[in-house]
Amino acid sequence: MNENENSQLEAAVDHELKALPNLRAPQTLLPRVMAVIEQRALLPWYRRAWQTWPRALQVVSMLILLVAFAGLCFGSWQLVHASAVTSAASEASGWFRMLSRTLSTLGVLVNALALVVRSLGPLVLFGIMAALLLGYFACVGFGTLYVRLAFARR
Amino acid sequence: MTDAQEFETFMRNYQGMVFSTAMRLLANQAEAEDVAQDVFLKAYERFSELRQSKTVGGWLKTVATNMSLNHLSRYRSRWSFFSDLWGKGREEDDDAQIEFPASNDVEADVAQSERRELVEQALRTMPAAQRVPLVLFHLEGLQYDEIAAKLGVSLGKVKTDIFRGRETLRRKLRLKLGDADLIDAV
Predict the structure, then answer these.
(1) Which residues of chain B does CATH 1.10.10.10 include?
(2) Chain A residues closer than 8 Å to B135 by CB
(3) What is the CATH topology of the domain spanning B1-78?
């Protein structure tokens, strides 16, 4: 298709689509929305969206949040400077020692695995990779087949 | 008039537009109705601002578009791979399911309302990958780069999908190029 035909097609499709009037909404839409609105109106204020709360409650809730946040900041600052923190830090370092031991064990295991892979040779490795690929494509194929069957028009 | 009554009138005025926007993007009546419901519930939360706004139509259209796209990405992305594979084989079959008269001057013979129904049907049966960018471009007036940003795909893919979408419509509607009379007669 050349440039001229392409722009003609664009104009024709544009004409077709822009000529479409609005569809008629299902008759159930309006009652559904009004029912949800009525249901929401029956809920107590604290179970509704914050934007719909009475203005005074919005202000009070915002103040409470601000006070809570300030308290959290102040508490954290006090905690960092407390003497009990030093002993807690030494206890935490014990945990880190254990973590480093676990990591070194994992490193040894990975090295052992690398040795095994090297000793297997390239043919076996290619075989394993081919089997994995085959499995992957079998999954894709069966998945497609199942989707086609499930959505097939009857 | 109470708030609820006023909102009901407001909804009657705009429900067709909101539903059409969702329906043409989702191509599924139940899902489009769900999205339209969410759009109006959101509108109700801001009704005090919206009732005086002159751009309320645009606001509703934008929210309906964004919610439809969110719906598509949330509920259908996991199937997109398979549906794309499926869609390729299906495009050819769809032509047979829409019944066109055999005549070459089909557009001249079919009444306008029937013609529009055919366009709607063609849109509904088109693969989502083509329909969504096509609708965003022609009906929502978005530019290629805006569509690419909204859908999170490359500019090239958007152009290709829109081109394919037009081709699909041309095939389904038997649009003839270079024949001004036929296009005007539509």
Answers:
(1) 98-186
(2) 17
(3) Rna Polymerase Sigma Factor; Chain: A (1.10.1740)
pTM given for the model: 0.63
**Which residue, among B34, B43, B33, has the nearest Cα to B63 in the 3D structure?**
B43
Residue in chain B closest to A23 (alpha carbons) equals B20
Q: What is the ipTM of this complex?
A: 0.74
Question: For residues B125 and B107, what is the distance between their CA atoms, to the nearest angstrom?
Answer: 20
Question: What tens digit of pLDDT does each residue of A22-81 get?
Answer: 999 999 999 999 999 999 888 888 888 787 788 888 899 999 999 999 999 988 888 777
**Fold assignment, B98-186:** Arc Repressor Mutant, subunit A (1.10.10)
Nearest to A16 among B8, B37, B119 (CB): B119
Give the torsion through C-alpha atoms of A101, A105, A107, A109, to 10 deg: -170
A76 burial (CB, 10 Å; 0-12 / 13-18 / 19+) is exposed
How far apart, in whole angstroms, are the C-alpha atoms of residue B153 and residue B15? 30
